[in-house]
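User: Some background: our group keeps a shared notebook of sequences we're curious about, and every so often someone picks one and asks for a predicted structure to add to the entry. Today it's my turn. The entry only has the sequence so far, pasted here. Could you supply the structure so I can complete it?
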Amino acid sequence: MITEEQLDQYRVDSTLLRVIRDVSPANDVRGIVVAWDDETVLIRKKNRRVVKLARGYVYQPYENERPPAFMLPQETIAPDDLSDDAE
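Assistant: Of course. Here's the predicted structure to add to the notebook entry:
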């Protein structure tokens, strides 16, 4: 969980953040911290809409690369040549 000090520093500096919610980069939220409480954080997106997110998500500056632990697998899986129906 992100700390009060980190959130306050991001808010004061108006740091553009990436909020990682799952392994798909398409589901990331990009914006700046507006406010927070014990369980949630308000993020203002570029289009000025505000999103209320849980503090348990991963918050990081947008210019940092996405951690590999939160990336989708990049290698393709080869199809199995043998199937159970071929018998």
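Suggested note for the entry: The chain has a mean pLDDT of 88. The CA atoms of residues 16 and 59 lie 10 Å apart.
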